[in-house]
Amino acid sequence: MSMHYQQSEELLARALKTIPLGIQTFSKSKTQYPFGVSPFFIRKGKGSKVWDVDGNEYVDFVNGLCAVTLGYNDPDVAAAVRDQLEEGVIFSLPHPIEMQVAEKIVEMVPCADMVRFGKNGSDATAGSIRLARAYTQRDRVAVYGYHGCQDWYIGSTARNRGVPKAARDLTHTFLHNDSDSLAALLKQYPDQFAAVILEPMNAIELRPGFLEEVKALAHKRGALLVFDETITGFRYARGGAQEFFGVTPDLASFGKGLANGYPVSAIAGRGDVMKLMEEVFFSFTFGGETLSLAAALATMKKLQAKPVIETMTDTGRKVVSGVRERIAAAGLNETLSLTGHPTWSFLNFRDTGPYTQWQLKTLFMQEMLARGILILSTHNISYAHGEAEVAKLLKAYDEVLGILGESLRTSTLEKKLRCDTLVPLFKVR
Asked: Model confidence over 232-280: pLDDT tens digits?
């Protein structure tokens, strides 16, 4: 047992007795963090920082898997939630805050004429696909990127256990930045595709014109275009990636940063399509839960009133340029690369010499965590990240990339690991 993470490891052992995997979210589990050199439970967060159950402090570059955009325990969001708590959380009829948040989304998001709420990004993407199928009276879906845990999508990945083959057969993947691969799919099954759904951008920068081509192909074949903006929404721009790239989809899903970490998601889109929600069954007891909606309204108002997106983008650019400079200085351009948007950038590992990308990532995480940086392999920027946080991150990179480079040059990586190597996982981006 690691003394540095004793409480974490004891709690993990306890949790595994009553919770499969010991946690509710796959991407926060022991499959992602190397045992013996990682925390497994966080006690609290404030601004850019979190503290684990052993009292170790970290600058957090995971930020609740991109759910926290303003920073932990943002005072404006917390005040709105406290005020709403005095009125109540859930009622026997809707609370007016439902329409207030819907109106704010319509004000900010280009595609939004009408809005419906869920709790997780998976709710919103699944609802958008059900809606598209009802509207087009078709069944097939073309996908790129990650779209949640529901059967319609996860059946197309390696994590498809328990998903009926009939559901798996209706979802088809196409290649990012390759509109020809989408065109071939749509041609193979004429008049059968209800929707083309994609994350507008994730790890790979967009080829100019790609989103426009995807929209034209979808509409030519009678399918709806759906943007999954669970992460890009309220991160790339106030109106999401659709505003950032100037391409408006028929429907879009939002979550994560919509409420700075409170559990709410949304489907927004064209009025004629969204009106069909009166017949499509998309209904949740807690869809109108008021604390999360209060947090969403406060978050969006702050996005409009403060330079949140501009600051996050500027901070992210400093991270991207600083990390790229350090990768080059360490002679690791053949091993590491940095891609993505400044507010959500990806550190990519390549097999090098005798070592796999998973060995390299494990050593990277071990050493970054030891230096007080909570990170997987993305830099999820929040408004709370400032000059001090960027400086701490880059100082850690200076040291850790030096260790990585030396371990490759001297073939001593396995000697530097104080834990087992992470196991390869299914890849969706």
From this structure: 999 999 999 999 999 999 999 999 999 999 999 999 999 999 999 999 9
Task: Tell me: do 169 and 294 sit in the same domain.
Answer: yes
- Identity of the amino acid at 259: A
Residue 389 in any domain: the answer is yes
- Strand order of the β-sheet with 336-341 is 336-341, 344-349, 378-380
One domain for residues 45 and 108:
no
* Residue 274 to residue 278: CA distance in whole angstroms: 8
**Domains in the chain: how many in total?**
2
Let me know if residue 228 belongs to a domain.
yes
Q: Which residue range(s) make up the domain with 56? A: 6-61+308-416
How many Cβ atoms from other residues are within 10 Å of residue 88's Cβ?
10
Q: What is the DSSP string of 341-388?
A: ETTEEEEEE--BTTB-HHHHHHHHHHHHHHTTEE-SSEEE--TT--HH
Query: Which residue in the block uniquely carries the two structure tokens 């709410």?
Result: 264
With the C-alpha atoms ordered 154, 156, 161, 167, is the resulting torsion angle positive or negative?
A: positive
